[in-house]
C-alpha cells in the first residue's frame, strides 16, 4: 500500500498548541495497524508511513510504542466506561458490564491488550503514566454508583467498590487475553448476575433486585 503524503510539519513558536491533525492521523493509523497485524509487529516506522508523518513528529508526542498504543485504544474524551447514576443499581451495574465488554471488544483493543500488558507489567514508570488515564476515572465513577446504592439500601454497606470493579473489569480483560472474541460471547448476563449477587442487599435469602 502506498504511503500517504507527509503532513507538513511547520516549526511553531514556543507555547503554540501542537497540530491536532497530526495527532488524529497517527492515532487512527495506530488503530488500523493494530487491527490488521497486532501489537507485537507494530512499529513506529509503520505508523509514520500509514499516517503520512515523520517519525520525530510521533516521538515528540509519545515516548514509547506502549504510550502511543494506549492513547490510540483509549482515546481522550472516550466516555465508554462512564456510567451515570440512574438511581437503579441493577441497571447501572448491567451498563457497566456492557460498556466494559464493548470497550474490550473493539478490534484494536483486543489486538493490543496482551502485548501492551506485557510491556507495562514490569515498568512502574509506565504504569504510573498510563493506568490512571482510563482506570482512575472509571473506578471513581463506579465507587460513586456503589455509594449511592448503599445509601438507597440497594447495595450492602460492607461491599468493597474497588474489589467489585476489579471483579467485572478483570474478568472481561482476562477473557480477552485468554480466549479472544469467543470468550466474550454470552458474558454480559452471567457477569452482571455474579456482580449483583456479591453486592446487593439480601432479602429472604436472595439478593434484592
Descriptive account of the structure:
- This protein is mainly alpha-helical.
- The protein has two domains: 20-73, Arc Repressor Mutant, subunit A (Orthogonal Bundle), CATH 1.10.10.60; 89-207, Tetracycline Repressor, domain 2, CATH 1.10.357.
- Helix content is 63%, strand content 2%.
- The protein has helices spanning 20-37, 44-51, 55-59, 65-73, 89-104, 107-121, 124-152, 161-179, 187-199, and strands at residues 202-203, 206-207.
- Strands 1-2 form a two-stranded antiparallel sheet.
- The protein is elongated.
- Residues 1-15 have low confidence and may be disordered.
Q: SSE order, as H and E?
A: HHHHHHHHHEE
Helical content class: 55-70%
Task: Give the low-confidence spans.
Answer: 1-15
Put simply, the count of helices is 9
Major sheet strand order: 1-2
Tell me how many strands there are: 2
Output the CATH topology of the largest domain.
Tetracycline Repressor, domain 2
Quaternary state, please?
single chain
Report the CATH C-level class of the largest domain. Mainly Alpha
Short description:
This protein is mainly α.
Give the topology, please:
Blueprint: H1 20-37, H2 44-51, H3 55-59, H4 65-73, H5 89-104, H6 107-121, H7 124-152, H8 161-179, H9 187-199, E1 202-203, E2 206-207
Antiparallel strand pairs: 1-2
Q: What structural keywords apply?
A:
single chain, 209 residues, mainly alpha, Arc Repressor Mutant, subunit A, Tetracycline Repressor, domain 2, 2 domains, two-stranded antiparallel sheet, 9 helices, 63% helix, 2% strand, disordered N terminus
